[in-house]
Amino acid sequence: VTGVQTCALPIYIYSGILSFHLNEQWGVELSVGIGSSSDKVEKDTLEDEFDIKTAIIRTDSYMLGNLIYTPTYGKFQLFDGTLVYFETFIVGGVGTTGVKYQYDHCLPPTDDDNNIVGDVRETQVVNYMTTVVGLGQRFFLGENDSLRWDFRDNAFLIDAADGSCNENADSVTSFHQNITFQIGYSYFF
After folding, report:
1. I need a surface site. Which of 26, 44, 175, 178 has the fewest CB within 10 A?
2. Which of the pair, 166 or 99, is modelled with greater confidence?
């Protein structure tokens, strides 16, 4: 059995967020991230034992502009009497996600006599329009800092022709999502 299977690998995204609050409920933010993924042993097993090459969809980077809405503020008391203040926020926005295509699943093009007549496509990063929605919380450690967590869904349409071995492949779009869980530290100026 031979073939090409498309799949997405788990990735680690190293990100930074710069926010500016217009008032207590509304804010804007710029979110940037750099992706890092590595091939898993299953990819090598599919190729070595079953002659199945996998076309991997690798998130290379993203840049998003978001609107932040904070509908809920609260506090709770720890057993020792310390008050912990928190807020819950909703995020929505648009931007771009860069997908890195390595074409390591491709064979060089050949003619009718199986002579190699060209090269495999060069590695490239293609940017796709992205929408994001998310939900999170901030737990304040003091006046100027907090710990935060959030879930975000970065959704975008990719064109299968961009990842195809054939540069002249037909354009077919498919829906993809990067669902992320972020934890971090925030410092306020």
Report:
1. 175
2. 99
